[in-house]
Specification:
By secondary structure, the protein is α+β, with helices and mostly antiparallel strands. It is 41% helix and 17% strand. It has 5 helices and 4 strands, in the order βαββαβααα. It has a 4-stranded antiparallel beta sheet with strand order 2-3-1-4, sandwiched between helices. It is flat, with a radius of gyration of 21 Å.
């Protein structure tokens, strides 16, 4: 295990790709010669180590499928007791449910990025007008 340092960071790499699996990303990290720690997860990987090494590895991972591999900072290294389920008596770790919600949106974001890169024009959508009070009353009455 590497020595602790002020300049160590942890990044969460979330894979939302049809062509790259979380295992592919993990193998790419294992091929790296940098002194980093990796933890494979159900959504991708967590990478911890010196800032320059982590940023280099994360950029390599993102280059595998730039619009479908997402990265976010994590405040704790993998296995930190304050976040680890084993030390807290089980259950989902704090932040898991929020991350799960974020992950569910990533396919739409990836598609939008693909469309942007391809120059697909945005569809103009007309903003809905104000709802007439009498229509609102009818809706309320119909629900009751």
């Amino acid at each position: 295990m590497m020595a602790e340092s002020e300049d160590n960071i942890t990044k969460i790499v979330v894979i939302s790709s049809d062509s790259v699996l979380p295992m592919d990303a993990a193998m790419k990290v294992y091929e790296s010669e940098d002194a980093i720690t990796i933890k494979e997860t159900c959504f991708g990987t967590m990478v911890n180590g010196p800032r320059d090494a982590v940023e280099r590895v994360v950029e390599t991972l993102r280059s595998m499928d730039r619009n479908h591999i997402f990265v976010k900072d994590r405040g704790f290294k993998p296995g930190a007791e304050v976040r680890c389920r084993a030390g807290r008596g089980g259950g989902p770790r704090p932040g898991f449910h929020f991350l799960r919600e974020e992950v569910s949106m990533l396919p739409m974001i990836g598609k939008a990025l693909d469309d942007y890169d391809a120059g697909v024009p945005l569809e103009e959508k007309e903003a809905p007008g104000k709802l007439d009070v009498s229509k609102l009353k009818k809706i309320i009455d119909s629900e009751l």
